[in-house]
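Exam revision sheet. Question 4 asks you to relate a sequence to its structure. Input first:
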Amino acid sequence: MAPAAVLYGAPAPGLVEVPKGARQVSPLIVGSEDLAALPDASLDEAVILAPPGTLERDFVLAQALRALKPGGAITAFAPKDKGGARLRKALEGFGCTVSEDARKHHRFCRAQRPEAPTGLAQAIAAGAPRIVSALGLWSQPGVFSWDRVDPGSARLLALIPKLAGKGADLGCGVGVLAAKVLASPAVTAFTCVDIDRRAVACAQHNLDDPRVRVVWADARVRDDDIASLDFVVMNPPFHDGGSEDRALGVAFIQNAAQALHRGGTCWIVANRHLPYEAALTAAFATVEVRADAGGYKIFEARK
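Answer key, structure tokens:
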């Protein structure tokens, strides 16, 4: 049964009024519903913490307007310095009459869904999953490094040896590292984990391999099904909600160590300024720096 109201994102408590019973539809919150899968003209209200990227933002707003009944209410908001100043223009581009206010460093735009919004199909198409030629893989705007290989991942790709046995990629994205790992026939099983539902869906397209299991989950949370591994590869995130959070990488390191058997190895790339040596040394028996150039360090850690 379709919900009457939805919430996209995780606003700070007290920042915005959320309709009672609103269902979460952010792809970054594990277990949420998919806004794109909701029926047309089924919602009474949508509250959207708008993402900062233009293609992703317009895709989300267009999907919300598509799913709203004519006259249904939309509240879209974002920090002023992360797209909030552009929200009004984006909604007006869809034919909405917008009222706007500012408080707590955010811009809030409120509107009702017009009888016949304009430009929804174009915005949805522009933000939809597609094969990205630069990657040769399925990806989608909003996914980390969605249209190119991240520089850190590129450096790790150049150094990863042929691996063997059972492994995992924590924070797999659309499967860039995984595709290289799976080129080794000695890999027998490989679990890919990501917190972004969109990345998981793309990875499932990209990694059509009977050895692969793709999981929508928070890689910081222990999963008993990911255990006794021979190897882990990862390019862990260090931003949460746009702010640097070094604890993210530390949590990835700790979880990788717990998932490996004694003697198992972890290959990890990190921005050079991130102080992961202490966490690696605490979690692993040996830690070797395999490369240190271009602002990135690559470690091979053995449990």
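Marking note for examiners. The chain has two domains: 5-126, 130-302.
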